[in-house]
Amino acid sequence: MAADRAGRMTAAGAARAVHGEWTKLRTVPGQLWTVVSLTGAMIAFTALIAASAEEGQSGVLAPTALSLSGVYLAQTAAALVAIGVVCGEYPRMIRTTLAANPRRTTVFLAKAAVTAAAVLAAALPAVLGSLAAGRAVLSGSSGPSDSPGSSGFPQLPLSSPELWRATLGTAVYLLLVALLSVGVALMVRHAAAAVGAVMALLYGPYLATLIITMPEHVLHRVQKFSPMTAGLAVQTTTGPGTAPLAPWTGIAVLAAYAGGALVVGWAVLRRRDA
Fold first, then answer.
1. Model confidence over 156-189: pLDDT tens digits?
2. How many CB atoms lie within 10 A of CB 216?
3. How far apart are CA 274 and CA 14, in angstroms?
4. From CA 137, how far away is CA 117, in angstroms rounded?
5. Which residues pair with 9 in a beta bridge?
């Protein structure tokens, strides 16, 4: 049982709930391939973007952010993993899950934990592979990748704390996008609607800043409070970055979005009929 007779969560019940959610994830081929695609998409997209950069843009594009630019596609895979874990059971299978484990908070925590573990397991090799691919493409064959001035895109040395903050921070960014998606999926309980809502939340404000001419102070407000541009400030090592925020402040903004979505999603799961 997921709870004792007083209705409290037990460690054994929580472990069984996590095992159940993990079994569902690994036995559904589509979901498992989505997890794997996160890594491949990030590395391939980064290599493509880096290859399209021209040396004349070296004063405009930040090399570290360019070497991690696959995150713009990988975040879609992270969201799809989370939405699959939650919405894959609606409208029917969730009744079986809640019949086997009536304590809904345990089900909520199990889904969030399995999503976080799967996305983080894919995100870590994704950011490392992306960094290696991006640096290799930008450096070309003219010298080692950590030699400043070896190409039109002088790069930070591998010993740079800012480089690893940006790299590991990008993995944290993908994790938070996945948790945000868990919350949204629990609210709407429909895969297509959840995908649309998460994509609008991530890409909508960014696209608006590209399409709509707005005063600089308005632009900065949009960048500061938009989950994608604020969160990706963690990649900033030179220049203004995606938002006028300190790197970890930007991650905190995205964490606030993810935390708020999880709380609302948990409340909806507890109160709404399956």
1. 899 999 999 999 999 999 999 999 999 999 999 9
2. 8
3. 20
4. 30
5. 3
User: Tokens for 31?
Assistant: 């979901």
* Spatial separation of the C-alpha atoms in residues 198 and 48, rounded to whole Å: 25
Which pLDDT tens digit goes with each residue over 191-232? Answer: 999 999 999 999 999 999 999 999 999 999 999 999 999 999
Q: What's the angle, vertex CA 41, arms to CA 35 and CA 45, rounded to 5?
A: 165
**Whole-Å CA distances, 137 to 60, 61, 131:** 17, 14, 10
d(CA 122, CA 157): 25
Tokens of 136: 């290799």
Find tokens 């450096």 and name the residue: 139
End-to-end CA distance of the chain: 20
Tell me the three-class secondary structure of the chain, residue by residue.
CCECCCCCECHHHHHHHHHHHHHHHHHCHHHHHHHHHHHHHHHHHHHHHHHHCCHHHCCCCCHHHHHCCCHHHHHHHHHHHHHHHHHCCCCCHHHHHHHHCCCHHHHHHHHHHHHHHHHHHHHHHHHHHHHHHHHHHHHCCCCCCCCCCCCCCCCCCCCCHHHHHHHHHHHHHHHHHHHHHHHHHHHHCCHHHHHHHHHHHHHHHHHHHHHCCCCHHHHHHHHHHCHHHHHHHHHCCCCCCCCCCCHHHHHHHHHHHHHHHHHHHHHHHHHCCC
Of the candidates 190, 191, 164, the residue with the CA atom closest to the CA atom of residue 64:
164
Nearest residue to 189 (alpha-carbon basis) of 108, 128, 102, 246: 108
Residue-wise pLDDT tens digits, 65-101: 999 999 999 999 999 999 999 999 888 889 989 988 8
